[in-house]
């Protein structure tokens, strides 16, 4: 029987660097995780590819997916829906591969309820003022929106104790190293290594 993969959920407040850290993790040649491409109703940005960055859907299509129970979780974020395709996640885990989700906190909460055996990692900023600086430097939001995001971040930060681990995103490479170490430790915990070791001894 194949061991099931680990469902890794990376979440945290807007602007903390989730997308940046995720891209860095997946830029490595030998990434051990499968990235679950999300569904969204937001319009593609320049350079974004359907099926690679997101599956771009109309609101009607997205609502039909909700109706048909095709999403592991979904949330409305700044006027658009975002959600995780449940069939892909289940099939990939069943094939023994780790699945990586990079989602906002409301969605992560839903996954926690449906999938408590997941590995929940909260990406935290070094400080609230650094978070604000990152939102400003990203330059994708107006001053008003940034203010709302920082307020929301206060609430979101209080949710970090619901996670298995908190990783500080001081430097992107450090955050990636910490995440990889956590996943490796989780595998050890789940005794996959022991099982493999036993198998090796059987073969020899
Ligand atoms: N709940 C949920 N959130 C998602 C999903 N995919 C992406 N997100 C989050 O949606 C938010 C907005 O994503 P996006 O529009 O790509 O903008 P950006 O990541 O802020 O540049 C981010 O916080 C993502 O982590 C998903 O499938 N479910
Ligand atoms: N460790 C870091 N140090 C400094 N800036 C960072 C770091 N991680 C991300 N950033 C910057 O912060 C901004 C927000 O990052 P982003 O990945 O879009 O956040 P999120 O996906 O959590 O909303 C971007 O301008 C990004 O380049």
Automatic annotation (TrEMBL):
Guanylate kinase-like domain span: 5-184
Cite the EC number.
Answer: 2.7.4.8
What Gene Ontology molecular function terms does this protein carry? GMP kinase activity
Please indicate if the UniProt record lists S-adenosyl-L-methionine as a keyword: no
Please tell me where this protein is predominantly located: cytoplasm
Which keywords, in A-to-Z order, does the entry hold?
A: ATP-binding, Cytoplasm, Kinase, Nucleotide-binding, Transferase
The enzyme class is transferase
Cited Pfam families: Guanylate_kin
Family note? Belongs to the guanylate kinase family.
What InterPro entries would the database entry show?
A: GK/Ca_channel_bsu (IPR008145), Guanylate_kin-like_dom (IPR008144), Guanylate_kinase (IPR017665), Guanylate_kinase_CS (IPR020590), P-loop_NTPase (IPR027417)
Localisation per UniProt entry: Cytoplasm
Catalytic function, reaction form: GMP + ATP = GDP + ADP
As for what it does, the entry says:
Essential for recycling GMP and indirectly, cGMP.
The UniProt annotation places ATP binding at: 12-19
The superkingdom of the source organism is Bacteria
Record protein name field: Guanylate kinase
Keyword Nucleotide-binding annotated: yes
């Amino acid at each position: 029987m194949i061991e099931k993969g680990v469902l890794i959920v990376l979440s945290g407040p807007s602007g903390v660097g989730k997308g940046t850290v995720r891209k860095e993790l997946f830029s490595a040649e030998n990434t051990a995780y499968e990235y679950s491409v999300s569904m969204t109703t937001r319009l593609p940005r320049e350079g974004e590819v359907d099926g690679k960055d997101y599956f771009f859907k109309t609101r009607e299509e997205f609502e039909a997916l909700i109706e048909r129970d095709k999403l592991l979780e979904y949330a409305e974020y700044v006027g658009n829906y975002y959600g995780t395709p449940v069939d892909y996640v289940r099939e990939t885990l069943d094939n023994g591969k780790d699945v990586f989700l990079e989602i906002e906190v409301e969605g992560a909460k839903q996954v926690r309820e449906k999938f408590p055996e997941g590995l929940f990692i909260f990406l935290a900023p070094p400080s609230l003022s650094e978070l604000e600086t990152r939102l400003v430097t990203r330059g994708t939001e107006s001053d008003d929106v940034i203010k709302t995001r920082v307020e929301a971040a206060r609430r979101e930060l209080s949710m970090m104790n619901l996670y298995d681990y908190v990783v500080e995103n001081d430097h992107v490479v450090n955050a990636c190293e910490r995440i990889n170490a956590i996943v490796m430790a989780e595998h050890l915990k789940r005794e996959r290594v022991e099982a493999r070791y036993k198998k090796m001894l059987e073969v020899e």
